[in-house]
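The data are quoted verbatim here:
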Amino acid sequence: DTATMSSTVVRHTPHQQADLWDRVQDLENRCRCNNIRVLGIPGGAKLGFQVAPQFPMSFLQDCFNLEAGQEFEIEKAHRSLAPKPVQGQRPRPFIARFFRFQDRERVLQLSLEAGSTWWHGEKIMVIPDLSPELAAQRCKFTSARQRCMQLGVHYALQYPAVLRVSVDSQTRRFMDPEDALAFLNTL
């Protein structure tokens, strides 16, 4: 009787493990939903512990020419916890957490509208802060997104990793990047 019960538990474990992993990933990404990741800020930029919370706002004002009264409340800001890069390597990303999701979305929209963003002679990218696993999933859609741009097809990469493509007033959603690319190559 005990042997039967243990084999049943073992049989269900891979499914349960996958379900738990999906839940952990969802929780991690929901915890990051108010964060942005800023890539390209030079490592030598003076970002002491005391000035870090004020830094993102002055950075945003410099990069996006915000009006005097237009400010966003930033809860905290810091460099990522990766090891300090050796000279010649890319600097560690800077992460800022907003009090409001709407402020984060506005900053991402400003970044998108600005196109290339430069700060003190360095090219800067402002992107959503995602878990490494989700970022890797979304990265797989790069070829399909590039194909959409080549074809002039309207598309959006939706959360978590779903490519929505609109062609001739019809919308299709793809969770597999290869399926999306195959469809786009038929156009």
Observations:
- Residues 135-185 form a domain with the Rec A Protein; domain 2 fold (CATH 3.30.250.20).
